[in-house]
Write a structure and sequence with these properties.
- The chain is an all-alpha fold and 88 residues long.
- The chain has one domain (2-87).
- Helix content is 85%, strand content 0%.
- It contains four helices and no strands.
- It has helices at 2-11, 16-28, 31-65, 71-87.
Length: 88
């Protein structure tokens, strides 16, 4: 039961993953290009659920067949490693 609370404490920092890159981008690009960059980011953010929901469903359905229901968590881990390394 303690791991539920530990995960919640660690997950508090998850919200900063959306804010920090946008702040860095706004400081790195010219003001005239900022709108274009943020539009592209908005399109990507809108498209991701349409891509990731079927992917997670596929992985979950395949892992449940082999009695490894938590396998989709490994997908989450694999997808979270690159942004974490970039922000380090």
């Amino acid at each position: 039961m303690w791991n539920l609370f530990a995960a919640s404490v660690i997950d508090v920092l998850n919200g900063t993953l959306a804010v920090i890159p946008r702040t860095m981008i706004s400081k790195l690009v010219a003001l005239s290009e900022a709108g274009t960059i943020f539009t592209i980011l908005a399109i990507i953010n809108a498209a991701l659920p349409g891509l990731l929901v079927p992917l997670y469903t596929f992985v979950y359905n395949r892992t449940i067949e082999v009695d490894f229901e938590g396998g989709f968590n490994l997908l989450s881990l694999a997808l979270s490693i690159p942004p974490t390394l970039i922000l380090m």
